[in-house]
Design a protein that fits this description.
alpha/beta, elongated, Rossmann fold, three-stranded antiparallel sheet, single chain, Death Domain, Fas, 449 residues
Length: 449
C-alpha cells in the first residue's frame, strides 16, 4: 500500500506547476516550520516533510485531498480517488488547513495584475525594493512565511567579525536577535507584531464633513444625478459611528476651501478624528467646484494640516473622495446609449494625481485609480460610496480596522459592472496613517438596521 501511495504522490507532483507548488507551501505554512518550508522547491519535498511528521500517510491521505480540493484540482482528485487510491474505511477526517489560510488563498486567486501592483505599493515600507521588483507570480508569494523569512535573511549582513546591522537592516529584529557567523546559525526571536490603534475614547468621535456637489449649471459640466443618495447614506452611517455630521451643498472652489478652513478653525481637542467626504466632478489636476474651478488635491488636505489645525495633530484625518481620476479614451470607460427609463451610468472626471504630502495620519480613500473614471447610477448612487457605507455598517461592529474595510470595498467594487460587462472600476486608498483606525460603535447609537 505504501508503494501505491507513493505513486499517487508522484502523479500529483508531476501534475502541479511551480506556482501551484508555492500555493501548497503557503497552505501548509501552519503545519511546518519556516526552516523546513524554506527548503521546499518541489511538491515531492513538501510531501516528504509532511510524511516525516505523520501529517500525511497512506492510512490518512485526507490532507492531500483537502489541499487539492482547496486548489480546485477536481479532475486530479477524481483520478486519484478512482484509479490510484480509494478510501475504504469511510473515516471522516478533520480539517487541517486553517480557514484563515484558505481565505487568503481564495482572495489571492481573484487578484488581478492591477490589484497586485496595489499590494506592492502598500508593502513598500515592509518589503525590500529588490523583492518587490521580482517577477512575482502571485500575492501569496509576497505574503507567505517563506517570503517573510527570505526578507529577513536579505536584510542581514553576515561578516567574519562581529555582526553589523544597520538601522534599516534590523528593523524587523528585536534586541535579543543574535547572529553566530561561524556556524551561520540565525536565531531571530519572535517580535511583537501588534500594531497600535488610534485612541477612540474621546467625548465624541469628531466632525464628519460632507461636501455634496450636484448643481453644475454655472459651468459646462452636467449635474450629478444620484449624488444625493450617496450624501444621505453617508450622513446616516457617520452619525451612527458617532460623528457630528456637517453637510455643505453645491460649493464652488472658494466655498470648498472656506468650508475646510472653518472646519480647521474648530476645536478638535475632545474629538478622536475628523472625516471629510467630497462628492463632485473632477479633472486630472483636482476636484471641481460647481463653478468648474479646481481645488487641487494638495490644497484640499493641507487645510487640516497640523500647522493649520493643531488640535488634529496626531489624530487621523480621513478623506473619502468620490470623483474620477481621468477621462482617457478607453473602451470600458464611457457610457453606452440606453433607453431613458434605464438606470444610466455617469462618470465624474477626475481627482488629481498629487502625491500625499509628507505628513502623518492622513488617509485618502479614492473611488478609482489614476487615469480612470468612476461610476454613478442615477437611482442608486455611486459604486464606491454605497459599497463603503455597506462595508462600514457590516464590519465596524466586528472590530475590523478601516484599511481592511477599504480592502473589502476594493474587492466589492472591482466585481461590479454594467449590463454590457465592459465598465469596471478599481478604488484606491492612499495613506500615511501610523496606527490602525478602528471605529467602536458608540454606545449611545443603536446599530443600523
Amino acid at each position: 500500500m505504501d508503494l501505491e501511495f507513493q505513486r499517487v504522490l508522484l502523479k500529483v507532483q508531476e501534475s502541479l506547476t511551480g506556482d501551484e507548488v508555492q500555493d501548497l507551501v503557503f497552505l501548509c505554512s501552519d503545519l511546518l516550520s519556516l526552516k523546513d518550508l524554506c527548503t521546499v522547491s518541489s511538491a515531492g519535498q513538501l510531501f516528504s516533510l509532511l510524511e516525516k511528521r505523520n501529517q500525511l500517510s497512506c492510512e490518512d491521505p485526507s490532507l492531500l485531498l483537502e489541499l487539492l480540493r482547496i486548489m480546485k484540482q477536481n479532475s486530479l482528485i477524481r483520478n486519484l480517488t478512482s484509479d490510484d487510491y480509494k478510501q475504504t474505511n469511510g473515516t471522516t477526517y478533520s480539517q487541517q488547513i486553517s480557514p484563515y489560510r484558505q481565505l487568503l488563498y481564495e482572495r489571492s486567486e481573484s487578484i488581478c495584475e492591477q490589484d497586485l501592483q496595489n499590494i506592492k505599493f502598500l508593502l513598500l515600507k515592509t518589503l525590500s525594493r529588490k523583492k518587490l521588483e521580482k517577477d512575482t507570480p502571485s500575492a501569496l508569494t509576497l505574503l507567505s512565511p517563506v517570503g517573510i523569512m527570505e526578507e529577513q535573511v536579505d536584510r542581514l549582513s553576515l561578516t567574519e567579525g562581529p555582526a553589523l546591522i544597520s538601522g534599516d537592516q534590523c528593523q524587523n529584529l528585536d534586541s535579543n536577535s543574535v547572529i553566530e557567523n561561524k556556524s551561520l546559525n540565525l536565531s531571530v526571536t519572535s517580535q511583537n507584531t501588534e500594531i497600535q490603534q488610534y485612541e477612540m475614547k474621546g467625548d465624541r468621535r469628531g466632525f464628519g464633513l460632507i461636501i455634496n456637489n450636484y448643481d453644475f449649471r454655472a459651468c459646462t459640466l452636467g449635474n450629478r444625478e444620484g449624488t444625493d443618495i450617496d450624501k444621505e447614506r453617508l450622513e446616516v452611517v457617520f452619525k451612527w459611528l458617532g460623528f457630528e455630521v456637517l453637510v455643505e451643498q453645491d460649493c464652488n472652489r472658494h466655498q470648498i476651501l472656506q468650508v475646510l478652513r472653518n472646519l480647521a478653525a474648530r476645536d478638535h481637542t475632545p474629538a478622536d478624528c475628523v472625516v471629510c467626504c467630497v462628492l463632485s466632478h473632477g479633472r486630472v489636476e483636482g476636484i471641481c467646484g460647481v463653478d468648474g474651478e479646481i481645488v487641487t488635491f494638495r490644497e484640499l488636505i493641507e487645510t487640516l494640516s497640523p500647522n493649520e489645525c493643531p488640535s488634529l495633530c496626531k489624530k487621523p484625518k480621513l478623506f473619502f473622495i468620490q470623483a474620477c481620476r481621468g477621462n482617457d479614451n478607453q473602451p470600458a470607460a464611457f457610457p453606452q446609449t440606453c433607453s431613458e427609463d434605464e438606470d444610466m451610468l455617469f462618470s465624474d472626471a477626475a481627482v488629481p494625481r498629487d502625491s500625499i504630502p509628507e505628513m502623518a495620519d492622513y488617509l485618502l480613500a479614492m473611488s478609482t485609480v489614476p487615469h480612470y473614471v468612476s461610476y454613478r447610477e442615477k437611482g442608486r448612487g455611486t459604486w464606491f460610496i454605497q459599497s463603503l457605507c455597506h462595508s462600514l455598517q457590516l464590519l465596524v461592529p466586528r472590530g475590523i480596522d478601516l484599511l481592511s474595510i477599504l480592502t473589502q470595498v476594493n474587492s466589492d467594487v472591482s466585481k461590479k459592472t454594467d449590463k454590457s460587462g465592459l465598465r469596471k472600476q478599481m478604488p484606491q486608498p492612499e495613506f500615511t496613517l501610523t496606527k490602525r483606525v478602528v471605529f467602536p460603535p458608540p454606545k449611545s447609537h443603536r446599530p443600523l438596521p
